[in-house]
Fold this sequence. Notes:
Shape: globular
Largest sheet: 9 strands, antiparallel
Radius of gyration: 13 Å
Number of strands: 9
Strand content: over 45%
Helix content: under 10%
Distance between the termini: 27 Å
Number of domains: 2
Low-confidence stretches: none
Number of helices: 0
Amino acid sequence: MPGERTTEGLGDSYAAAADLTTHQYKFVKLGASGIDVTGAGEAMFGVLLNDPNTGLAGSVMHFGIGNLVVNGNSVNIAPGDPLESAANGIGVKSTADKKLVGAIAIDPATADGVIISVIVLCRLQASV
Length: 128
């Protein structure tokens, strides 16, 4: 089933720089005040595994097999597709060369807001 494969992976805990209570399984970035969701095209630090409020510990997976909220509606996601960040830390298929990629899809997605299993890579540069 999509979104059900997970491993311990490599990660750590960081203070939440904002209210992340609605951002579990989304891409995050690290700033001076802690972690926050990434914006479109921003470099990913990992995937948020819990849902902390401001100042509380957020568990971030940097590498491993985990879950990610994606939008596969406009550009469908197939297993093996590289995923980058869209607005609010949502994963989308990377369709351009030299984009920052934070995960590789294990499961397909054809709708918005779907949680799928991915290989979390922290960030790499796509070669499409």
